[in-house]
Amino acid sequence: MSTVADEIIELDDERIAHNYHPLPVVLATADGSWVTDVGGLRYFDALAGYSALNFGHRHPALIEATKAQLDRVTLTSRAFYNDQLAAFAEALVELLQIPDGMVLPMNTGAEAVESAIKVARKWGYEVKGVADGQANIVVAGGNFHGRTITIISFSEDEDARAGFGPYTPGFRTVPYGDAAAVADAIDENTVAVLLEPIQGEAGIIVPPEDYLPAIRRTCTDNNVLLIVDEIQSGLGRTGTTLAQDLSDVRADLTLLGKALGGGIVPVSAVVGSASVLGVLQPGQHGSTFGGNPLASAVGHKVVDLLATGEFQERSATLGKQLLSGLESLVGEGLVDVRGVGLWAGLDVDPNLGTGRQVCKALQEHQVLAKDTHGSTLRLAPPLVVTDEEVTWLVEQVRHALVDVKVGNF
Ligand SMILES: *Cc1c(COP(=O)(O)O)cnc(C)c1O
């Protein structure tokens, strides 16, 4: 490693709160699926900013839209209208095929989740008629929805939760993948069911095929809102526009973030019908930066890129190639591989080593990836990856597993 990198890592360690444990690589530039460190070494980016970089680094159309908007206006606040936001929202509800759709623009994913919880509670009191202060929301075990106090209140990850109480009440946790457990947990005060259609941070956990459709029916039958967090799964990652599309379901509120900002600015959104989002009146919710013209211009371009279907198609086709390649490594250092689209969860044989050891070995083979936890690794390459790169990536995983096996990491 270069001394420049060492110095930066040392300064980072001193000046940046230790809430992450980064791999020892200092990145300086990036293009498409590749990043370059301060010493000039290139790496394939198999994390893609936790799927915030679905279109790769610095996609030319996104950079062009950003630069054009930088020359016009960047921030107005929503005290006034701007000429970008409504058109972005219009394109987004059309992409998601929500005919009477409305958009609540926010910035980060956690804010979209928080906003949806507020909307669901208000809808519960004003529309469903739940007694004041009694609303509950059913959530799934093993969830990841972000880092705020309310969101970690219903997390099962002790690292994320311990030491941050008192916690927000009003949530009921049932096992993920069990639609009957969701139905059992619902009572007259339930305003919403909140879940990920595929659990990303938990290790790309794909639920049974009928899970989401069954929950959709239960929610409809019980007058409960279905809130689907597509912050990581959405916008092409699964080979479809939304993961919900895999089972022909539409949530009442769909949460987007990460890739919606094109890897350039934080952009998130709650998307749903006017009958639900319409409960919000002036002064009841807000965000200084939410819906700003720069974010709207970038988000609109992201929607335009997805409107052609090209990225979803690439994700589906190359995802099959990635998964079948990785499946050939089961028994050769991996105990399980699963995924949808260009989104794969790999369980490393615990006798071999940890996910982090494999990530360190991958780094030596010019691949940057991140363990989710324990022995599980996630691969989520940018959707601009080529088929040659997918084949190459699988080979590097094979090499890394051998390196860990012989005790090099
Ligand atoms: C990343 C993520 C979030 C939180 O998004 P932030 O932008 O980090 O606040 C919420 N839900 C899911 C499913 C995510 O993957």
List the helices and strands and how they pair.
Blueprint: H1 3-15, E1 27-31, E2 34-37, E3 42-45, H2 48-51, H3 60-70, H4 85-95, E4 101-106, H5 109-128, E5 136-140, H6 149-153, H7 158-161, E6 171-174, H8 179-185, E7 190-195, H9 211-221, E8 225-229, E9 253-256, E10 268-273, H10 274-277, H11 293-307, H12 310-327, E11 334-339, E12 344-348, H13 355-364, E13 367-368, E14 370-373, E15 376-379, H14 387-405
Question: Could you characterize what this model shows?
Answer:
The protein starts with a helix and ends with a helix. Helix 4 (85-95) packs parallel to helix 11, helix 8 packs parallel to helix 9 and helix 12 (310-327) runs parallel beside helix 14. Strands 4-10-9-8-7-5-6 form a seven-stranded mixed β-sheet, sandwiched between helices. A four-stranded mixed β-sheet has the order 1-2-3-13. A four-stranded antiparallel β-sheet has the order 11-12-15-14, with helices on one face. Helix content is 37%, strand content 17%. With 409 residues, the protein is an alpha/beta fold. The chain has two domains: 4-59 and 310-405, Aspartate Aminotransferase, domain 1 (Alpha-Beta Complex); 72-307, Type I PLP-dependent aspartate aminotransferase-like (Major domain) (Aspartate Aminotransferase, domain 2). The chain is globular, with a radius of gyration of 21 Å. Residues 50, 108-110, 113, 144-146, 196, 200, 229, 231-232, 257-258 line the site of pyridoxal-5'-phosphate.
CATH class of the largest domain: Alpha Beta
Q: Give unreliable regions as ranges.
A: none
Largest sheet: 7 strands, mixed
**Dominant shape:** globular
Strand content: 15-25%
- Ligand catalogue: pyridoxal-5'-phosphate
Structural class by SSE content: alpha/beta
CATH topology of the largest domain: Aspartate Aminotransferase, domain 2
Mean pLDDT: 97
